[in-house]
Amino acid sequence: MIEESWFGPCNGPRCCMTRLRTILIISIFTSSIIVAPLAGTSIYFVASWGVPAGDGTWENPLDLATALSSKSPAKPGDILTLRGGTYQGAFVSMLSGTENNPITIREVPEARVTIDGSLTVQGAWATYWDFEVTNSNGDRTKARPAGVSIFGPHTKFINLIVHDAGDGMEFWTPAVDAEIYGCLIYDNGWQGPDPDRGHGHGIYTQNQTGTKRIVDNVLFNGYGWGIHAYTEGGSLNGFHIEGNTVFNSGSATRQGYHYDNILVGGLRPAERIELIGNYTYHTLGKGGRNRLGYSAPNKDVVVRDNYFAGGDSVLSVSGWQKVTMVGNTFLGLQNLLSLIRPAGAETSAYQIDNNTYLGGDASTPFNLQNQSVDFAQWQQAGNFDHNGRLVATPSKRPVGTKVFVRPNRYEPGRANVIVYNWDLKLNIEVDLDEVLMLGTPYEVRNVLDYYGDPVAVGTYSGAPVRLPMTGASTRPEFNAFVVFSRPHRYPVGSPRQ
Q1: Beta strands in 224-296 (DSSP E)
Q2: Does residue 10 have a pLDDT over 90?
Q3: Is the entire prediction scored with pTM above 0.90?
Q4: d(Cα 332, Cα 355) in Å, to the nearest integer?
Q5: How far apart are CA 143 and CA 129, in angstroms?
Q6: Cα separation of 203 and 62, whole Å?
């Protein structure tokens, strides 16, 4: 029977069932991504102990393989509701809704749903929301399957937790105009035999038609790259990459040397690329970088309002015909920005201004056309950053504290919080007025220990919320948190429903 504490006193299974269906409809249909009318909507329940012959009721749920298959009873506009538990296997979804009536796959409120294996998505116009995908196989010495492989056009993946897989999420060309949003993607990949490098990226993606959206995700501590938009024979056309927090990519490898947090580039030209308001971090002195451009000539890229921190070269940009780069912060100990403008690129096509550069222990922290230059030479030779500024840090470390809050587009009262704690404070205070309403119960979870105890719990009074910055590999210098405006749906020790 459903827990009474979810919905208040209940008079029996029929009453609880009615309340559950009502809450599910309200919670899902108030989201901006669902535009189907309530009339005609069916809800089907799925359970780890369900059977192919199940009718999708609470008492007789479907199994997941059937619910996702071409034999699924779910039609456009319907909802598949996953009951708590562990679903083991390699699952393939063929679910297809329509533009105005997508199919939604989401967990029961208060449940923890775990797919232990993999999920491949082939269908279209479907939304996968708020469950966990992992791989319990502890052998990290050989290739392992991706957590989520996406081929379905117009699909959305919202607030998933994907960890300990091969690639975390593979986002391939057939997934036209699809979106990965608000997901936590960490500890993915494997270590090749010595002297091979680590393998398995947070998000591995290619695209040809339309625009893929990769927004407000948190990716960290994998064996490979973070966001890896790379190809040798495919296409890299049309990416909107915004609000992502990507840190210490490659840190799980034997070498302990970090890889790219964000790479967009390959052996084929890239075009229509946007990087807006992203936050990256490499532990200072541990290598790593961000890279736009690989070996092919590229067309156009917009880089705006990002905060790039750490790495041997904080950002490397090469081979683009058109670059717009404004309002960014670059922070590191050595090379802050490397730029190679290809032959024939027009000077007027490079709009680089209003950027802030922090640190740069070297006297020449810029690299322009493979020549190390100081800030004055950067401004003059490149005609760049006449409204930009370089702030030297004599202590060889940046100073101050920088906090960013990213409200979740699809779940009111939820947000990512990103903290650069250059003063190494043991605690920081965060203003959550744009996320929480007065009197709202809340909790905050550290992404480095997401399934552990919350680091802050309370009722929001309007005062700043204090968050601890100690106790893990990146702390106290850097950390990321997730804020919820209610007790989280899977408190530690709670039964899986």
Answers
A1: 227-229, 236-242, 245-247, 258-264, 270-276, 279-281, 287-292
A2: no
A3: yes
A4: 14
A5: 27
A6: 30
